[in-house]
Amino acid sequence: MSLKPSPIEGIPAETERVARAAFPRGTTITRLRDEFTELYRDEDFASLYPRRGQPGLAPWRLALVTVFQFLEHLSDRQAADAVRSRIDWKYALGLELTDPGFHFSVLTEFRDRLLKAEAEHLLLDRMLAHFKARGLLKARGRQRTDSTHVLAAVRDLRLLELITETLRATLNELAVAAPEWLGEVAQPEWFERYARRAEDWRLPGGSRPKREAYAQQVGADGVRLLGALDEPSAPPAAGEVPTLPLLRQVLWTYFDRGADGTLRWRDGAELPPVGERIQTPYDPEMHYSTKRGMEWSGYKV
């Protein structure tokens, strides 16, 4: 895909009318748009995109969504849902109320594009420049200028959702295929931890240690389940559930096991390209793809 910069247009009239009615005093998201209409511009990211090919999604919008999801501790899927459903987000992004948004994997690709080009500093550099111009920063104040923690936080939330939901899907299939066996090997806390879809509740989005601790717990649960399935006493039906190979692939894509058996959550640089990763356990053939300037989340023939 290519980048054909275009000016940021005004907020659609109906979107503005509904947002003003719904939030008379505004929200953090709407106030950010009111105060900084051009917090980011397409031109800020021009060096990340080729000049030829079909145009992709406006990077200024993807940058804003990345900041919003960091502020609200949202995974990529939750952020994409917010673009589709939340009035204040549509207001800030200048979208019609009927705009369908985009697939959540587009956010993963945008972050990878920033990191590969070592351009993650753009997110905060542009923001701090605007804040300084408005006098919102003290002349000698210390301000964090490293955007890596923003990108890492939203990446972590995306992966937490994926590994949690993959394990949950496997447990649900085992509950049908081998309910008695699962009742014997499942830990009591699993019923609470994996009772609901991961995107139905907020994942730990505070400090990185909290996210890593949660990831380690889910990874340990997954490894424990795989160990039980490898035992001779495991019923054949349990080893044939469709999601089991996906669970193995997801766990060993995002975790590394040391010689002492401890798990380590892999850094972003150790992961395969986004187009080669599983996006969801419910449709494993779907991947983020680009070809001759086109981008899509779907299938390759």
Features of the shown structure:
4 strands, two-stranded antiparallel sheet
Description of the molecule:
The protein is mainly alpha-helical and 301 residues long. Helices cover 50% and strands 5% of the residues. It contains twelve helices and four strands. It has helices spanning 13-22, 28-35, 59-72, 76-85, 87-93, 105-116, 121-133, 148-177, 179-185, 190-193, 208-230, 244-254, and strands at 255-257, 263-265, 287-291, 294-298. It has a two-stranded antiparallel ribbon. A two-stranded antiparallel sheet has the order 3-4. The longest helix has 30 residues, at 148-177. It is elongated, with a radius of gyration of 21 Å. It starts with 12 loop residues before the first helix and ends with a strand. 33% of the residues are buried. Mean pLDDT is 79; it is low at 286-301.
Main structural class? mainly alpha
Strand order of the largest sheet: 1-2
N-to-C SSE string, H for helix and E for strand: HHHHHHHHHHHHEEEE
Mean pLDDT level: 79
Q: If helices are DSSP runs of H or I spanning 4 or more residues, what is the number of helices?
A: 12
What percentage of amino acids are in beta strands?
Answer: 5-15%
Percent in helix = 40-55%
Shape: elongated
**Amino- and carboxy-terminal Cα gap:** 19 Å
The tally of strands reads 4
* Low-confidence residue ranges: 286-301
User: Can you summarize the main beta sheet?
Assistant: 2 strands, antiparallel
Computed CA radius of gyration, to the nearest angstrom: 21 Å
